[in-house]
Amino acid sequence: VALKRGEAHLAGAHLLDPETGDYNHSYVERYLPGEDMVLVTLVEREQGLITAPGNPLGIAGIADLARVTYVNRQRGAGTRILLDYELEQAGLTPEQVSGYEREEYTHLGVAAQVASGTADCGLGVRAAARALDLGFVPVGSERYDLVIPRTHYDSDLLAPLLDLLHDAQFREAVGALPGYTVTQMGTRRDTP
User: Fold this and answer.
1) pTM for this structure?
2) What is the pLDDT of residues 97-128, one digit of tens each?
3) Which of 53, 105, 127, 192 registers the highest number of CB atoms within 10 A of its CB?
């Protein structure tokens, strides 16, 4: 939306298209129709259920959300879209998930709710679970892209950032973060 309003030179996106299983392309087409955009992969990151240390409730996957208290991400967040997709795959409805309507705006916010005991689990990135020494049950991996208008992609403005994505030291540092993979970092994916 910020790109559409001309308020940003680039935006991060990790929005799953439940129809195709692909990330970001359909949302760029929907929200920026006719705009010449380039998607550049930043990272792939692991999403999973953040639990209390040691996972005392034995949460094994999305199906277990019907028996525990949950803390969600806000509407429109890529993690929320992923959850809704996974719920449908598991045959669950939002009404069957206690806490579905309780929202946090960051992965660390979700982790903090679990750490405080006000929720049994929430979907988030492994790094947030690790930051607060919490348990983590993997759900899947997602592609996190940078969405860039071609005019900015082709300009000198973003050249330092785009070069950084191919820098060995930077890639090594990001790859060392829990749950992050850099094998596709810097890969360009043009929109149709």
Assistant:
1) 0.91
2) 999 999 999 999 999 999 999 999 999 999 99
3) 127
Show the tokens assigned to 123.
């979907």
Q: Which residues contact 93 (CB under 8 A, 6 or more apart)?
A: 87
Task: Give the span between the Cα atoms of 19 and 147, in whole angstroms.
Answer: 20
| Nearest C-alpha neighbor of 147 from the set 52, 63, 41 | 41
Question: 152: part of which helix (H) or strand (E)?
Answer: helix 150-153
CA distances from 47 to 12, 34, 71, 126, 161 (A): 16, 31, 15, 6, 25
Q: What are phi and psi of 164, to 5 degrees?
A: -60, -35
Structure tokens at 87: 């719920």
Residue 106's alpha-carbon distances to 73, 128, 141, in angstroms, are 7, 9, 18
